[in-house]
Amino acid sequence: MEKLLALYQASVRKAQDHLVKSKQLFSEGLISKNQLDENERAIAAAQLKVTEVQQQMTSADAQIAQTLLEVEGEKQIAKLGPLPKGGLIKTTSFIRYNGVGLWSLSQAGKIELFFQQTFKRPLPIAVFGQGAIHDRWRLDHHNAMDVSLNPDEPEGLALMEFLRGNGIPFSAFRGAIPGVATGPHIHIGLPSHRY
Ligand SMILES: [Zn+2]
Questions:
Q1: Domain boundary, last residue among 76, 111, 133
Q2: Considering only CA atoms, which of 47, 54, 44, 38 is closest in space to residue 5?
Q3: Total domains, the chain
Q4: What is the predicted pLDDT for the residue at 177?
Q5: Distance between start and end Cα atoms, the chain
Q6: What is the three-class DSSP state of 3?
Q7: Mean pLDDT, to the nearest integer, of 168-172?
Q8: If you measure from the C-alpha of residue 192 to the centroid of ligand 1, how many angstroms do you get, rounded to a whole number?
Q9: Domain limits at 142?
Q10: Would you say the pTM of this structure is higher than 0.85?
Q11: 122 and 188 share one domain
Q12: H/E run at residue 126
């Protein structure tokens, strides 16, 4: 992860250098405004990657608790049987919404944008896609991300409302599974499966 972070930080610096040159070229009328905007977007994208890696590094404990909850939660979800498109289940330990249409992790950007605009801080992503911990526990988490928000608190509630409004599947874990002390979070994507 540290190596990955260094790589991403290097690409931010590269994009920043590129922008400085582009601004010069733009002021001389040698490139278009569109090209300049594209450079700015490249920096934002590179910075997002840095943030994601930093969050993954600082939240190893949270990841373990959250993954444990998902492993336990998956058993309970399986017991409840298939859920129709757009279906919603609430229990004392979790809330599951089945979504409509196709979900892909590449839609994460619009969720992050909604959260940033609403709460003026970045979406607290603890896990983005498959992590080492999922590999070890043989949990398929490739097309999912975990957000460290309690589903019973205002930010978590607002996020779930946004997800339902956009037909995006999620499972919200309240952290009330016996034997699991902590780890309330919102898992965005279909439930993880063990393999
Ligand atoms: Zn998850």
A1: 76
A2: 54
A3: 2
A4: 57
A5: 24
A6: helix
A7: 95
A8: 7
A9: 85-194
A10: no
A11: yes
A12: strand 125-128
